[in-house]
Amino acid sequence: MSLYANIFRLGDGLIQKKGEPSGLYKTNPIIVGNNGSFPIKRVMFEDEFESLLSQFQEYEWAILNGVTYWGRNNLAASQSKMCAMIFDLDGVTEKTLGSFMDGVSAGYYPQPNFITLSGHGVHLYYVFEQPISLYPNIKTQLKQLKYALTRVIWNERTSTDKNVQCQGINQGYRIVGGKTKIEGVAVRAFEVDSHPITLDYLNEFVDEKSKIDTSKLYRDSKTSLAEAREKWPQWYERRIVNKEPPGTWKAPRRVYEWWKTQIFDSAVYGHRYYCLMALAIFAIKCDIKEEELRKDAFSFVKMLNDLHPEDPFLESDVESALDCFDERYITFPRVSLEALTGIPIPENKRNHQDRYTHLQADHWEIDGETVENPCKKNREESLRKAREEGRITGRPKGSGSKEYAVKDYFAEHPDSSSRKAAEALGISPTTVQKWRP
User: Fold this and answer.
1) Do the domain assignments include residue 394?
2) Compositional bias of type Basic and acidic residues: which residue ranges (predicted)?
3) Which domain holds residue 148?
């Protein structure tokens, strides 16, 4: 229990208790086992953790990993936080394990917090100082980091098995105290270092292209829903009460088509995953259907694999990248996509105008095509809703005086044109048309 208490911060309220009210956004690890007849899956609630662990220790096999999940399924799409990164190292003998520990002492390999004897191999547990939120783009980077670290840890000195097994972050491992493949032998755990690790520490052991830029990780908000309701009542009403989607700007299809061309022309080894991750994000921005996206994404497999056949680009890598086909990433920053893919993504042009003038315009000229300014449309819609909901009351500032000025002008100049009236009154022709008798 001390191993799992360390990983999942048992007693600190990180994971949910049985019957704990919703709205706290807590998630839980999920255990899977087989009692001899069929597989069983259970959510590991904090107050039931020890009793469930004891129950599954008696099964034919039982596995658990260092990840927590939303809901009751340990699917990649349901992952919430990674509390520990765990590695499998097979083909271990007394000599190879000694070689690994000598390498740890010499600084060649990262020092694990726990090592478990799982039968014919070992599992290495690296417990994070702070659990890592598994946003789709972060999951892809974590997988690459884990693959790279596996190749560092698993070599001819540390294992007699030459078949290096790179496993994803969703992989489960035999539970401590549970049965192994060796009759009568249970999984045993040993604590090596009580001090938790960071991604920066793991980054030290891999090449530059496999490192994670920790400065760009998404940070979880520490604001509770109750506090958010007080600070941002309009947002709370729209997003939480009415469950409306996040506001954003949609892009035209040509942006999606442009990005496919960029992949063909500019994708390089080391950025392959991120190019398809960006394709999924552009698909969300451009209202592309998932069926079309998947067809396009898988069509790149051979081309991306040919960039570096020694490190195959697989269909499973495509599936991982497509996790970003998610509305939460519709506002993913352009500069972040540039950094991840290594491909320049130009800013939208303002037609040589300052930002204020550009945003106030009724229409924009884009690639020779006139399109309606989405900013103005969104602003007008927001004002309309605010008036309907009573958050803004009364007439717009100055509207009454302009109405009277227009009517008074035409009372004296009934044959005047709207253009002349606008010039005489110093207001827009649109306002004149609105209030002209």
Assistant:
1) no
2) 378-392, 404-422
3) 2-216
